[in-house]
Amino acid sequence: xxxxxxxxxxxxxxxxxxxxxxxxxxxxxxxxxxxxxxxxxxxxxxxxxxxxxxxxxxxxxxxxxxxxxxxxxxxxxxxxxxxxxxxxxxxxxxxxxxxxxxxxxxxxxxxxxxxxxxxxxxxxxxxxxxxxxxxxxxxxxxxxxxxxxxxxxxxxxxxxxxxxxxxxxxxxxxxxxxxxxxxxxxxxxxxxxxxxxxxxxxxxxxxxxxxxxxxxxxxxxxxxxxxxxxxxxxxxxxxxxxxxxxxxxxxxxxxxxxxxxxxxxxxxxxxxxxxxxxxxxxxxxxxxxxxxxxxxxxxxxxxxxxxxxxxxxxxxxxxxxxxxxxxxxxxxxxxxxxxxxxxxxxxxxxxxxxx
Length: 355
Ligand SMILES: NC(=O)c1ccc[n+]([C@@H]2O[C@H](COP(=O)([O-])OP(=O)(O)OC[C@H]3O[C@@H](n4cnc5c(N)ncnc54)[C@H](OP(=O)(O)O)[C@@H]3O)[C@@H](O)[C@H]2O)c1
What we know:
- The protein is an alpha/beta fold.
- The protein has ten helices and 14 strands.
- The strands form three sheets. The chain has a six-stranded parallel beta sheet, sandwiched between helices.
- It is globular.
- NADP nicotinamide-adenine-dinucleotide phosphate is lined by residues 13-19, 40-41, 43-44, 61, 75-78, 80, 98-99, 132-133, 163-164, 166-167, 331-332, 335-336.
- NADP nicotinamide-adenine-dinucleotide phosphate (NAP) binds at residues 13-19, 40-41, 43-44, 61, 75-78, 80, 98-99, 132-133, 163-164, 166-167, 331-332, 335-336.
């Protein structure tokens, strides 16, 4: 099969934090694509980026960009996706959207291929949504456990990386770290880190030498938008509309890779041994659970890898139907670009079957 026989892909947002990882993935995964078009804002038009070992010029987003495109990935802010994904779909492309614009639209499937790949085939608006990175860090492992044990309730706390706030988040954390590095006194007096850092970037408090219990915008009842996404998106992906979910989302001074502490309650009693067997056999999951020998997932080890890593699996001391676990996943790979690439590949296979 030549490239001319394969579907044409558009990557909208190719210059961003997620887009950059997407180009790397497209260069290293099985090549199912013919032409790959790189699209960003007018600010980036003319810039050359490398994909599949070749330089490709970035073009400014316009209606013409989608002529002849079979699949269009959107790695752009919500408002840009909200406007342009329907335009791409109207031009005949299947839009795979990484933003939050369509995730809870009942006519848009929210897809994690390891959990609900078949949902990608039913897309009345021609759009498929990719879940948010925090939900994606846990849902592959939870999907495998749910299939056997029946999930009833989740209580989770996240430890989210700076790159979850895009390239500006990474830049801000690196600048803040440079400002506090070398001091032997910062972090010992109220407000000293705040004053030393000065500019918090996209975060509501300093992230260097700190943790920040806030991600997203304020919603009813004091919940953050990120916490509601974890609840609503988990319910939709797992087809459990009444799943009880309580999340606290926290930003930590990690560049990339989100972590989650998960308390999961099941319909059935569960042993650590059975949970280990399920997790060890689950596609897209790596079990890393031997604390005696220092084996548990940490962001520093997990960053740059594809799977969800699970460790610290314990049966709840007070409930034999519940497990406590720690999970890590690269928020720019499975949490964003990889899951989008996997969905796009599912669509490419479907288009190939139809041709
Ligand atoms: N970071 C994560 O962990 C993560 C995880 C899951 C989902 N997401 C979602 O993925 C999307 C991209 O996030 P990111 O972290 O990659 O953001 P980012 O680093 O800020 O990149 C944004 C991208 O969007 C492009 N863009 C912005 N405004 C545009 C416009 N008006 N027209 C065309 N292109 C425009 C930018 O192009 P220029 O370079 O030309 O400005 C850039 O390529 C967001 O919706 C985000 O919520 C992010």
